[in-house]
Amino acid sequence: MPTKKIKLKPLSACVVSALALFYSHAALAQTAQKEDKKEESVVITGSRIPRASLEGPAAVTIITGEEITRQGYKNVYDALNNAVQNSGFTQGEDFGNTFTPSANTISLRGLGPNHTLILLDGRRMADFPIAYEGTVNFTNLANIPSNIVERIEILNGGASAIYGSDAIAGVVNIILKKHTQGYNINAKIGDTERGGGGNKRVQFSGTVNVDQLQSLFSLEYSEREPLRATQRDFMALRSTPSATLYRKDIKTGRYIDLGDACSQLSDFFDGTQISYKTSKGSYCASPRLSPMHWTVQTKNQSLNLFSSSNLTLNADTTLFADILLGKNKTENDTRSPSWVSSSTNQSYFWNKNTNAYEAWSKVFAPEEINGVNRFNRRWDDTSAGINLGIRGVLPGSQWNYEAAYSASAYRSENVVPRTLANIDTFFLGPKLGLDSAGIAIYAPDVQRLTRRLTPEEFNQITAASRSADSSRTQTLSVALNGELWQLPAGAIKTAGIAEIGNQSFDNLPDPQINQGVFNTVTKSDDVRGSRKRYALGAEVYVPLLKEVTASLAGRYDDYHFAGRKDGKLTYNGGLEIRPTQELLLRANYATSFRAPDMNYIFKARGTGYYSSTTDYYRCKAEGQELKDCDYANYSPGANYVQFGSPDLKSEKGKSFGVGVVWSPSNQFDVSLDYWNIKISDMVVNLSADQLLRDEADCRTGKRDIKSSLCADTINRIKRYPTNALSHAGEIQEIWVNPINAAYQATSGIDISAKYLLKTTTAGSFTFKANYSKVLSKKSKQFEGDALYDDLADLGNSDWRDKLIASVNWNKGDWSNTLTVTRYGKIPNGSGEYYLSPTGIANWSTVYQASKNLSVSLIINNVFNKIKYDYSGGWPNYPVGSFTPFGRQGWLEVNYKFGA
């Protein structure tokens, strides 16, 4: 295989040369060194150097596998979603209308899913193949079996000098178990008190040891039932009924009377279809339409397999192999099947029978299409990850090494039901040509619009598209760590890493979409891309004095993509001072960078539509309250246009933090840390909802319409002319192509405390608390703009602060844990004021019935609290920020044998 030459920048070449000289000298020094005693050490996220202390120059939060169960978390994602560092609003499987309902992710410090690096045992996983919100790449957290998790470590702040690109907001390292005894069967079942969303899960794990071979395996199968909006009384009906059937005169804007059609079809939509009268006439409508077709929680089946094997060749050499396989089936419902006449050509036609331009529309009722699930969307996801390598001690030295090859792949097949191109003919009859304005001419029979369909007829005008999306990543790495010289205060320790990697993705839509098979004009392009990555890095840990330790890391990453390359040298420095044995003062400073998402780079001109859209400007212009506005949450939503750009620059970040840890005894410790993160050239694909909010503020004078932000925003939102015959003043399309934003910065504090109380009669009590507060978050999109206060923005749904407190009581065979999560204020749906902070309590009781058998009872949301918000209208709660589940109960049985 030919060697690929990398041309480094002058500074980078100097760094690489220095590192090479440093390690050649260090190897000679280490070979001469002889030590009889070896300190027991562990590797903590944020460093590749093993050390005895769990505390370092940067704060690391640890969630153990036991705590995931004890604190009432359903899985790994649930535990991370509730972590106090996760202050950002994200859309996942419980969001309903989203691009990625089969995946879950987090947003540390509110900087977005793509600024948090997710690692599995210190190694990267393949991105989820479908971009989050259709824009950014991210790692899916939905399919990692919780029973094989040893612990989760969350590192605050930038760590690119250790792990490379993406580690700007922080790093999450999910560390899996490597040792266990015997076999373990775990079964868990749960349901919600108000109905819907039930769960089942069974896990089987164990260890197989044969001579020098040690293997751990785990198999997990789970099922989750969907939760529909109709299963919660506060959102089972909309206050304003949604149109289900209408006929409209385009020129006058009035609805044409449908006779007794609404009463004849009154059994539709669970018997809620009525004739709804307005100032412009009447049409058929139902207050249950939207709730019937909105899955708050997706239906899911998941099968996951994990295996970890170690073969000891001798005392200094071990071969290892880790394999993780996953199969995931997801199903949800986000919109009702519907038809609008001539939707591919202005959505109206010339009616030859009435000599008028008319628009016809029909929503297909569950009663005529064979049930509400008939139009569900489905995802079939497959993931695989492998890690192969060798680790040990270099002969004749005390240097530890590891050489590994890791690879992972993700494939998602999506089945989307669609109406066929023949649907206009089905309802309107044959097309008779076009008029002088290019509008289609029909002579339709109105009975075709108002009569009841059969499931067989519905099947004649609908089919499904099948797309296939995939992503892959692979890395070859060599790591080295050991001790250099012995100083009076201790040994200088060091570690080095060299990596070669490759990432790629493919988005392949159904070719029938572009062949005119379906009733759509929105085209879908094949999108694919790849990039190579080369990296070289080093760390050093220096005990300057007995009380003072310094650490320094440097790394150069070089990316090759789209005929160009982008490299960056990052560094990281830390300082630990221990004035006394009980007190630690720490500080860290880091530079970081992030290469642009491949989706941003390789996306061709993409078009599509949002599941729902709110036109804030028209609501304000017509003086309508958001909760009652005709233009709020309309579905399907506005069309969007998106472009990629191979010329996007890499993001550059700086972060620093200072903190103090006080641990006067083994029973008590407390820490306080301040963190600050700044990003320049941040790549953003602007949120359509935020653009619409900004447009309303610009057009109504809340923002300066002459500002560069207003000019850019208004230019991105294309509207039909106010004098258009149809859709007058409505949104035509929204342009959301990515740009390098000028600047974003955020800062805050983290506080954690732990206290262990042991008594002679009442057992032992463990009190834990973690609190995080965002002190500031400011941004500007263009260099000349003034800094914008994101915390004061009532369109920003991120948490301002979050607190998690728990108490665990152990006595005899019983263990009880109460966990309370207090969510700080967030804006209400109308963006007019803040919702009050809310506390949610979880309770778990674990009974050790015998040496091998334990039984757990878990209650989530003990007090059955649901956060209501009627200000934004249906669905009457803060979607994505809180859930409408209410109280949930779980029974878990764990049995061990063969130890």
TrEMBL record:
<keyword id="KW-0812">Transmembrane</keyword>
<dbReference type="Pfam" id="PF00593">
    <property type="entry name" value="TonB_dep_Rec_b-barrel"/>
</dbReference>
<dbReference type="InterPro" id="IPR037066">
    <property type="entry name" value="Plug_dom_sf"/>
</dbReference>
<dbReference type="InterPro" id="IPR012910">
    <property type="entry name" value="Plug_dom"/>
</dbReference>
<dbReference type="InterPro" id="IPR036942">
    <property type="entry name" value="Beta-barrel_TonB_sf"/>
</dbReference>
<dbReference type="Pfam" id="PF07715">
    <property type="entry name" value="Plug"/>
</dbReference>
<dbReference type="InterPro" id="IPR000531">
    <property type="entry name" value="Beta-barrel_TonB"/>
</dbReference>
<keyword id="KW-0998">Cell outer membrane</keyword>
<keyword id="KW-0732">Signal</keyword>
<dbReference type="InterPro" id="IPR039426">
    <property type="entry name" value="TonB-dep_rcpt-like"/>
</dbReference>
<keyword id="KW-0798">TonB box</keyword>
<keyword id="KW-0813">Transport</keyword>
<keyword id="KW-0472">Membrane</keyword>
<feature type="signal peptide">
    <location>
        <begin position="1"/>
        <end position="29"/>
    </location>
</feature>
<keyword id="KW-0675">Receptor</keyword>
<protein>
    <submittedName>
        <fullName>TonB-dependent receptor</fullName>
    </submittedName>
</protein>
<feature type="domain" description="TonB-dependent receptor plug">
    <location>
        <begin position="55"/>
        <end position="171"/>
    </location>
</feature>
<comment type="similarity">
    <text>Belongs to the TonB-dependent receptor family.</text>
</comment>
<feature type="domain" description="TonB-dependent receptor-like beta-barrel">
    <location>
        <begin position="375"/>
        <end position="862"/>
    </location>
</feature>
<keyword id="KW-1134">Transmembrane beta strand</keyword>
